[in-house]
Design brief:
With 180 residues, the chain is mainly beta. The chain has two domains: 51 residues, no CATH class; 125 residues, no CATH class. Helices cover 7% and strands 63% of the residues. The chain is built from two helices and ten strands; from the N terminus they run βαββββββαβββ. A hairpin with a 2-residue loop joins strand 9 and strand 10. The radius of gyration is 29 Å and the shape is rod-shaped.
């Protein structure tokens, strides 16, 4: 479905047996008939979310802090190809790592999250012996937070869950420089 349009199925069991009558209503997906002889109809209808006939509610909004991950943000190897001369080498690195937001727009409007920037500023002096190399890694720790919610609508007295929303936010929290 495109944004703003909700597709529902209406199971019309009003003229059927007791089982069919008890199932009469709107569903987010086609339902299995209550018995093999059922000839009740199921019709798909489309609703505009902005219609005054539709009421939207978000339920079970959850925030789950997940384990942090460490990512290699910068990696480079400096080599001294000389067999006799020791090399002094300077290294400077400056970068900003921003929060990564991967949330559906509906969920983004429902939850509070931190939008952070981590500034990395490294300046090193290295001595590289003949025939040796130095590997520099800048590792950034990203804290992952997962957000979830259920989207429900109310239409003609029926409450129907129409979507499970999920997204994530990754915030940079720290960095570490490793030399090998």
């Amino acid at each position: 479905m495109s944004d703003g349009i909700i597709g529902l199925y209406y199971f019309d069991g009003e003229d059927g047996c007791d089982s069919c009558q008890s199932m009469t209503g709107y569903y987010d997906d086609r339902v299995d008939p209550p018995h093999e002889n059922c000839d009740c109809e199921q019709e798909m209808i489309f609703l505009d979310e902005d219609s005054s006939e539709v009421s939207i509610e978000y339920k079970n909004i959850e925030k789950e802090d997940s384990d942090s991950s460490i990512e290699t943000y910068y990696n480079n190897t400096f080599e001294n190809h000389s067999e006799t001369v020791t090399v002094k080498r300077g290294f400077e690195f400056s970068e900003s790592v921003n929060t990564r937001i991967d949330l559906p727009s509906e969920l983004e409007d429902l939850v509070d999250y931190d939008d952070e920037t981590l500034d990395i500023n490294e300046s090193l002096e290295m001595t590289i012996e003949p025939g040796e190399s130095v590997e520099i890694n800048i590792l950034v720790t990203m804290k992952l937070t997962i957000y979830r919610a259920e989207k429900w609508i109310e239409f003609e007295g029926y409450e129907i869950k129409v979507a499970d929303l999920e997204g994530s936010v990754e915030n940079p929290t720290q960095y570490e420089t490793e030399l090998y």
